[in-house]
Structures are given as structure tokens and as C-alpha cells.
Specification:
CATH topology: Immunoglobulin-like
Distance between the termini: 83 Å
Order of helices and strands: HEEEEEEEE
Largest sheet: 5 strands, mixed
Strand content: 35-45%
CATH class: Mainly Beta
Number of helices: 1
Number of domains: 1
Shape: elongated
Strand order of the largest sheet: 2-8-7-4-5
CATH architecture: Sandwich
Length: about 160
């Protein structure tokens, strides 16, 4: 019985010792993401040319730290929308894709900075369908919160 009491007391002591009086409040803030600055690219309704290189530039920030970002460019030949989409451009007629441009890439943000400017070069192939596209950019913070923005663009 003494052994059981000692083990119970030891177990209780371990539980109390593992609890910290300085517990951190959970992160409740999503990161921010914006192309609304002078160098931000692409802006809504930007026309990209086939066979050219461009640099995507987006400002991101978070109250704790940033972990990753992703760029997703996909066709909008069916005129779908995204819930986070800003201004919409005049769309070409609905069409069936034959050789659409599809770009999906994830990137790490080293060092968990609180602010980071995405600067990612991408090449637009010359043998793709022209038309309406979405450039969707997302950022994830170190606690897993995500924010994204979708931008209407055209490729000619």
C-alpha cells in the first residue's frame, strides 16, 4: 500500500511539474497576404504573354511566423470563382481546355520570419491555351493557419 501511495504521489508530482504557469495562448490569427503594393504581381486582370518569364511578388506576414507558400495557376475556361477572389475581369467565352497551363508548386519559408516577400520566377510555356486563368497564392503560418488570394489573369 505504501508503494501505491508513493507511486500516486510521484505521478501527481510529475503531472504538476509538467504544467507551466506560463502557457502560451493559442494562435488565432491567420497570416496576411497582399499584392496591393507597387511591386506586387500579378494584379487583377494582368495579361501575361506566352513564352515569357515573370516574377510573382506578394507580401505576406504573420503574428508568430511563416512556414510555407504555394502558387497555383489554373485555367478559368469554365468561369468558376473562388470565395476569396477580389476584382473580376471581363471573361472570354466559356471553352473546353485542350492544352491548359497548370502550375502548382509549394515552397518553404526558412527561419519562420514574421514578414516575407514572395519572389518566385515562373515561365509561361508557349504551347498552351490562351484565355482566362486564376493565379492562386496561399501562405501557411507555423501553427497551420492558411490564407489565400485568387487573382484573375489572362494568358495570350
Amino acid at each position: 500500500m505504501k508503494l501505491r501511495s508513493k507511486l500516486s504521489a510521484l505521478f501527481l508530482l510529475m503531472i504538476l511539474a509538467s504544467c507551466s504557469s506560463e502557457s502560451e495562448a493559442p494562435d488565432k490569427e491567420k497570416p496576411t497576404i497582399s499584392v496591393n503594393y507597387q511591386e506586387g504581381f500579378p494584379k487583377s486582370c494582368t495579361v501575361l504573354k506566352k513564352g515569357q518569364k515573370y516574377t510573382v511578388k506578394v507580401q505576406t506576414s504573420d503574428n508568430i511566423g511563416l512556414a510555407t507558400y504555394a502558387i497555383d495557376i489554373h485555367h478559368n475556361f469554365d468561369h468558376h470563382t473562388h470565395d476569396d477572389q477580389g476584382a473580376q475581369c471581363t471573361l472570354s467565352p466559356v471553352k473546353t481546355p485542350i492544352t491548359p497551363f497548370i502550375f502548382m508548386q509549394n515552397y518553404n519559408i526558412d527561419g519562420a520570419p514574421k514578414s516575407y516577400e514572395i519572389q518566385q520566377e515562373l515561365s509561361i510555356p508557349s504551347n498552351i491555351d490562351s484565355g482566362d486563368y486564376h493565379c492562386q497564392i496561399s501562405v501557411v503560418d507555423v501553427t497551420g493557419w492558411q490564407r489565400r488570394t485568387s487573382i484573375d489573369i489572362k494568358i495570350e
